[in-house]
Amino acid sequence: MNQTQVTEFLILGFSETPQLQMLLFPAFFLLYMVALSGNLLIVVVIVFSPALHTPMYFFLVNLAMVDILCTSTILPKLLGSIMADRTISYGGCIVQLFFFTWSMGAELLLFSAMAYDRYVAICWPLHYSTLMDPGVFRLLAMAVWTVSLANTSVNTGLLLRLPFCHSNVVQHFFCEIPPLLKLSCAPTYLNEAIALTADIILAVGNFSVIMLSYVCIIASVLRIRSAAGKRRAFSTCSSHILVVTLYYSTVIYTYIRPASRYSLDKDKVVSVIYTSVAPSLNPLIYSLRNTDVKAALRRLFS
């Protein structure tokens, strides 16, 4: 069987229409600038504001770093492919997939860590300083980065075993596991099984942890007698709930199914949300809805 090993991939992107390309470039450029500047600002504000040196904002710094990693892995190459070269080397494609999968796994795990922090703060306020001392939340952050690194290492390692031939056209706007598996000329059952297992554990498992945390939080808040106390408790969770809903709804739709059921047009649109839109909105949601962050911003710029 004559096979030609692929040395570079062609990223299909969104459209060949010049008029649409002219609209896509400024849209994605704006998303990247908002995501990069917004998340960097979050990091700077929290680092230089001693009043924000708490577990909740420590996790928010980690989330901002994950969003910077995600957008910087995807959007610069996407902008380049819109304007000129749509090809990407085999090594560049693997590197892009590695760092994107790492950032996505870390984001899912961070949401659980943040939900646990809110659970302890609201349900066990008298024990918060003990249950969330610096050693605990730093260990949680280390676990987030380590587990997500192990996940991407396994999935990327399995992908490196596959030969790619016949076609080098990636039916997506970046290198992701499902479209790459469709290009392999070898069986991908093991890759699909491992990827699906990891996605179920990371997406569904973490989502279940978050939901359980918020069931306990809601039950605890409802026992608060004063209306002001209830509003204050819910306000500390509203931003997190909004971000989690936006991110998980798209990730679960994309990944909790076999690669054979991957759909080109629908999944590319959904992927834009968790690779570009969500990282751009996270700083706005957490800063505009958070009085502590807004006060720190005013102090920093004054």
From TrEMBL:
Q: Which InterPro entries match?
A: GPCR_Rhodpsn, GPCR_Rhodpsn_7TM, Olfact_rcpt, Olfactory_GPCR
Keywords (alphabetical) are:
Cell membrane, G-protein coupled receptor, Membrane, Olfaction, Receptor, Sensory transduction, Transducer, Transmembrane, Transmembrane helix
Compartments in which it is found = Cell membrane
What GO terms fall under cellular component here?
plasma membrane
Tell me where in this chain the G-protein coupled receptors family 1 profile domain is found: 38-286
Which positions, given as ranges, span the membrane? 23-49, 56-76, 88-116, 136-154, 200-222, 234-256
Superkingdom of origin organism: Eukaryota
Q: What name goes with this protein?
A: Olfactory receptor 13G1-like
Q: Which organism is the protein's source?
A: Enhydra lutris kenyoni
